[in-house]
Design goal:
The chain is of the alpha/beta class and about 210 residues long. It has two domains: about 130 residues, 3-Layer(aba) Sandwich (Rossmann fold), CATH 3.40.50.2300; about 60 residues, Arc Repressor Mutant, subunit A, CATH 1.10.10. Helices cover about 50% and strands about 10% of the residues. It contains ten helices and six strands, in the order ααβββαβαβαβααααα. The strands form two sheets. A four-stranded parallel β-sheet has the order 1-4-5-6. A two-stranded antiparallel sheet has the order 2-3. Strand 2 and strand 3 form a beta hairpin. The chain is elongated and about 55 Å long. InterPro entries: CheY-like_superfamily (IPR011006), Sig_transdc_resp-reg_C-effctor (IPR016032), Sig_transdc_resp-reg_receiver (IPR001789), Tscrpt_reg_LuxR_C (IPR000792), WH-like_DNA-bd_sf (IPR036388). GO terms for molecular function: DNA binding. This is LuxR family transcriptional regulator. Keywords: DNA-binding, Phosphoprotein, Transcription, Transcription regulation.
């Protein structure tokens, strides 16, 4: 969903690098995007936040309203937000924190390799946002349940999957989302701290779990 035809076409070409057989449909307004979603749920939705207005200016309001509709009516579709103004997403932090589908954010100023990495993360059901947004991410009730199983019961990803009646991949995504929301992914590699231990240490420090 991109109002610049050249950018939309380039996005399709890069997605075909990742999956040569993929079918890519480019639309230039949020309204057309909603109509397309009504016809079928794709593996990935790529959304720009800013669209042109009647006055010729760019506005993030249509893109944000589009995301709100997707969150409400298509809560598991995988989304890649590809925008030059990712900070506009601050007002959607509560919805993003609870979103069930894959959700990645890539700045248009980054290299195209970042676009492909963001698309891959979203399709795999992961959460990937810019660090300035991470600190504002909120933990859902499900996140707190995962923390309890991880820290108080020391369950493995497979055991968490069995306890919650989900696939192993889904359980791994639950843990990956905790790393993002708690900013564990940006720990200094030189500390050699196990990520699961780091999650629990951070959660205990924030009084999110009591061991």
């Amino acid at each position: 969903m991109e109002d610049h035809p050249e950018v939309g076409q380039n996005n399709c070409e890069f997605l075909r690098i990742m999956s040569p057989q993929c079918s890519c449909i480019s639309v230039d307004t949020p309204q057309k995007g909603v109509e397309q979603l009504r016809q079928g749920i794709p593996d990935l939705v790529v959304v720009d936040l800013q669209f042109g207005t009647v006055g010729g200016e760019q506005s993030a309001k249509p893109g944000l309203e589009l995301l709100k509709q997707i969150f409400e009516y298509y809560p598991t579709v995988n989304i890649l937000v590809y925008t030059s103004e990712p900070t506009f997403l601050r007002q959607l932090i509560p919805q993003i924190s609870k979103y069930q589908g894959g959700f990645a954010v890539v700045n248009k100023m980054e290299r195209r390799s970042a676009f492909l990495e963001g698309a891959r993360c979203a399709i795999e059901g992961q959460l990937k946002v810019h660090r300035e947004l991470m600190k504002e991410m909120q933990l859902s009730q499900q996140d707190l349940e995962i923390l309890d199983l991880l820290c108080n019961h020391a369950l493995t990803d497979r055991a968490i999957a069995e306890r919650m009646h989900v696939s192993l991949k889904t359980a791994q995504n639950y843990v990956q989302r905790l790393k993002v929301k708690l900013d564990i992914e940006h720990l200094d590699d030189g500390q050699n701290v196990n990520p699961r231990v780091a999650i629990c240490m951070t959660a205990m420090g924030r009084k999110l779990v009591v061991c």
